[in-house]
Amino acid sequence: MAELSLVSGSVGLITLQSPPVNALSAAVRRGIVDTMQRAVSDPKVRSVVICGQNGVFCGGADIREFGSTMTGPPLVPMIHAIEAADKPVVAAIEGSALGGGLELALGCHYRISHAKARLGLPEVTLGLLPAAGGSQRLPRLIGVPAALDLITTGRHVTAAEALKLGFVDQVTDQNTVEAAVQFALSVVGQSLESRRISSLPCPCPVDVDALFEGVMQRVRQSARGAIAPVACVQAVRAAATLPYAQGMQREQELMATLFTSGQARALQYCFFSQRAVSRWSMPSGARWDTCKPKPVTKAAVIGLGTMGRGITVALAQAGLSVVAVETQPQQLKAGQRAVSDMLERAAQRLGVPSAVQGVRYSQELQAVADAHLVIEAVFEDMALKEQLFKQLSSICKPDTLLCTNTSALDIDHLASQTHRPQQVVGMHFFAPAHVMKLLEVVYGPRSAPQAVATAMALGKRMGKVSVAVGNCRGFVGNRMLMPYVEEALFLLEEGATPETVDHALEEFGFPMGVFRMSDLSGLDVGWRVRKAAGLVEPGKMSRVRQGRRYSPLGDLLCEQGRFGQKTGQGWYLYETPGSREARPDPWLHSFLEEYRARQGLVSRRIDSQEVQERCLYALINEGFNILQESIAAGPEDIDMIYVFGYGWPRHRGGPMFYASQVGLPRVLQRLEHYQQLHPDVPHLQPSSLLWRLVSSGSPPIHRWREVIRKPHSAL
Ligand SMILES: CC/C=C\C=C\CC(=O)SCCNC(=O)CCNC(=O)[C@H](O)C(C)(C)COP(=O)(O)OP(=O)(O)OC[C@H]1O[C@@H](n2cnc3c(N)ncnc32)[C@H](O)[C@@H]1OP(=O)(O)O
What spacing in Å lies between the alpha carbon of 59 and ligand 1's midpoint? Predict the structure, then answer.
């Protein structure tokens, strides 16, 4: 809806009314068209101000409408009518002016913004382009390079930056609507010719072709297969090279392709899933809306290795008072220096006061005694953690939350070392912990819902996408990674090279293939885990362990001290230890050939399709098992874990969404096919939930929960 009122005697004030963000739903568009017509034809109205209710100008088109047939007046003619009005129209921007919201403002003759407002054209992040004239108006107003930056990245800018770039006319820290009304009164009678952006020429760069070629190359490289950024460049190019009307036509053509694409659907699914995961639930029925988090102002971190340092930074930046404990004096000193450096650098970058003063350091575990929440980030060793939890149980106050940053160990076992198992949860951060957006909050069977609520709330405060998951080996992310990595190793045994596997996965959209990733994180990490699981038999080449197919390839490399980037050799070769550029390693290729020969394995050509299917479907299949066991409450939880923690390409929506797009019968059929070829690989055995979904007619992903909840015998 939109409402028109007369203010200050002659200003028609149009207020958009559609909580929470005044998105441009059919009703709002109808309201704008109607109120504008009334304002233009009312002789008492000499100028118009458009604002949004509740301190938000407009969050753009209503994304929820995209999945259905669009009704109501379209945006483009609505914005043209505003621009064509013969009375000055001023946008009063508070809160957000994003996407269609900013395009609406660009159709106005003037834009007044509150200092705290954020503006931008984030359509690209939803798989779209600014197709209500934004791709044509913005370059005309601020020039091609700046418009390309905003449109291809979708980044939100502050009002100050928008003023500097030239797409707002005035910034105020007072009442924005009042400022806009005063402004509207002051411009009555002035010519509007130069204020109609669509009539302005686009400032054309000297060498258009070179500029766009360069930009297109950069965009294609960083887009990793996403089509919207490329279409955004093409649309801006149209603005720079064609008259406005033709540019608009091009904008519409490009949008038509994007609008119905699978990528747009995936990105919009991610938008809503990112928000949905904060509405967590546990199998016990406890939920986000029935549990209040406990206030946390004092936190403690134990262990100042890489993870502990990042966690300390993340907590301090969220405004908590932190005590960081490290018992090794050298490590304490190095950790303190690293944390302070990270905090200082971040403060400089963001132009905010440094949080260095918020962190205390100690060698004594006793220093955590008055913390509201403790996160242990010591070495991944169960005995060490058991001992620590016993000590924490007697040092900390009875209501202190005890959290572990383990990436795979049993949360419930750790809880059983304390007198307060209900106060124990996992907070699984991803390295670097102050940068990576994902946090897995892991509850055990005895974790109190309030403990989960508190960890989730803390995650939100740190700016993380926090996902609540149940306790099992590897939780959600690492558990699904195991079959993915194993399939990659099996492919090497069968004839692939690290290069061919990585190429296929990078072609799919991962920033790094599995072997480059393994070199980066260190081969010794997985080796330790396999040793703890009793899988490693030094020097042995047997390919069946614990009753199933096993590849000792990773172990054999580790036995040679090839731990990846840090040792200069792993699955690839590096110029020096620590350098990042992975080069094919002839030694590794001969090693693989010898290995196959000694094992009597016949090497065959393996194509990208097989790599992608075997690695990804094995991972997805484990996702179905996880859903079946209620370790994750829904597919969105798994998908957000993969998008924010494991580099799954966002434009593919996450593994479960991807499976839904490929088609569940197809995923099932390919798993069955590979399982027949490799009967000794249990993770290729299709999950019973996948079977149930297929036999329930493969419902759309938002209806999977209904099948998951259905008792098995009902089928
Ligand atoms: C034919 C088509 C022609 C033209 C197309 C135009 C393209 C567009 O305009 S696409 C939309 C572009 N806009 C955006 O991408 C903005 C999206 N929203 C946001 O970034 C944020 O929501 C925010 C506006 C900055 C507000 O942030 P915050 O205060 O943190 O609240 P949230 O939790 O994010 O959102 C609250 C609630 O609102 C829902 N929502 C937000 N924006 C939209 C929207 N544009 N359409 C529909 N719904 C929206 C959001 O999902 C939340 O609801 P949940 O129920 O929690 O999901």
Answer: 5
